[in-house]
Amino acid sequence: MNKIMIVDDDPAQIFTAEEILKDAEGKYKVISANSGMDCLQLLKNNEIPDLILLDIMMPGISGWETFQRIKQNERWSKIPIVFLTARADVVAEKAGRFFAEDYIEKPIKSEDLVRRIDLVLKNSSQK
Prior knowledge:
Rossmann fold, globular, alpha/beta
């Protein structure tokens, strides 16, 4: 069972992603964080996921800054990150796909989310 951390300041987005992943044939255990700081604290407490779904636009520490802090830490730097965002412009998409393993626009589509998580996990296990 793969452990997926969902980081989003919107409880409805976390709930939606959790429900989608819980329905995915028991393949995932879900951990949620309401902010970049919560994410980093969970990681410091050794709650290490197989993949992080990371919202970009959050108050306090943005998804970009959270991403940078994760990648700068030797213990966490190999965790695959998939950006989640409501931002749908070309610049954000290109930056998201360049830096992270994938970029998913909100609203989340259940079949798309599971398929893309599976692909990222498959690709990261082959490295």
